[in-house]
Amino acid sequence: MKTDHIFYRIFQDLPETFFQLWGELPENLNDYRFDSVELKQTYFRIDGVFLPQDVDKPIYFTEVQFQKDEKIYLRLFSEIFTYLRDNDPELRWRAMIIFKSRSFEPTEKQRESVQPLLDSPLVKRIYLNELKVSETTPLGVQIVQLVVARKKQFLERVTVLIDRVKQQFTEENYRLQLLNLLSVIVLEKLPQMSRQELEAMFGIDDLKKTRFAQELMAESKIEAKLEIIPSLLKKSFSVEEIAEILELEIEQVRQAIAKLN
Q1: To 5 degrees, how large is the angle CA 140–CA 153–CA 187?
Q2: Among 61-65, 92-96, 103-107, 214-218, which is the least confidently predicted range?
Q3: Same domain, yes or no, for 126 and 228?
Q4: Is residue 201 domain-resident?
Q5: 3-class SS at 54?
Q6: 115: number of Cβ within 10 Å
Q7: Residue 120 domain-assigned?
Q8: Going by C-beta distance under 8 Å and a sequence separation of 6 or more, which residues neighbour residue 228?
Q9: How far is CA 2 from the centre of its chain?
Q10: Is there a domain that residue 174 lies in?
Q11: 216, pLDDT greater than 60
Q12: Do 122 and 248 lie in a common domain?
């Protein structure tokens, strides 16, 4: 499962989730923009950053770690300090590292050189398997916890969350945004789930409106068009004519023909 992608998607769509995990919400969420930043002259990019509009407010860095990496802290702090050096050394900063569990964190010996930073209020470590979730837990945090839930538990919780979203959020665009996010997580966790199972879980009408379903339908339409190409070739249509007839890019037609040979 591509965990970085999922978490950054959650923080992009539900930025309050990050601050709920941190334990402190800013006065105005709109003061922050979730983005990635490049480190000058290094060609490195920090993917998860909450940038404040007001320079007096702290910048938040986040790292998601689902595999062992004994140098994760050294790399993260090196990137943070490089960013501060290149931009503004006086910038206030915070950092959150999200681990699947404590077993993925560097050992006490491996993190000895950065332990003072880890013990400071500037840094927060989150262990997903230790998150306590209940009906009153913020929605975004419940969605985050889905990422580490076991299959049976996952199916039970995601079904409850889908029903909650449908009942609680009447504004269609926001409701569909949440359902789309949940559909992405479902397919990442259970890639073999059939269309019929997805329709039963989300409801046909709502599923059809999600961005995932629209992208899937667009892909299906293209595939259907590509299947017509051999018959058009037999009728002696040129590549350009086929592209025009099927409303495809010429390169798409050429690639499809190449696969036939």
Answers
A1: 65
A2: 214-218
A3: no
A4: no
A5: coil
A6: 11
A7: yes
A8: 246
A9: 8
A10: no
A11: no
A12: no
Domain of 125, in residue numbers: 3-148
pLDDT band, residue 142 (cuts 50/70/90): very high
Q: How far apart are CA 212 and CA 218, in angstroms?
A: 10
Tell me, rounded to whole angstroms, the distance of Cα 82 from its chain centroid: 25
Of 122, 148, 174, the residue at which a domain comes to its end is 148
Looking at the 3D structure of the chain, how many domains does it have? 2
Q: 232 and 132 in one domain?
A: no
CB-based contact 182:210 (threshold 8 Å): no
Structure tokens at 61: 């860095």
pLDDT digits 0-9 by tens, 158-214: 999 999 999 999 898 888 889 888 988 888 888 887 778 887 888 867 776 666 656
Surface-to-core class of residue 190, CB atoms within 10 Å of its CB (0-12 exposed, 13-18 middle, 19+ buried): middle
Q: How many CA atoms lie within 13 A of 198 on its CB side?
A: 25
Return the structure tokens found at 37.
């930043």
Report the alpha-carbon distance of residue 131 to residue 89 in Å, rounded.
Answer: 34
Would you say 127 and 99 are in contact if contact means Cβ atoms under 8 Å apart?
yes
What is the side-by-side order of every strand in the sheet holding 44-52? 32-39, 44-52, 59-65, 93-99, 123-127
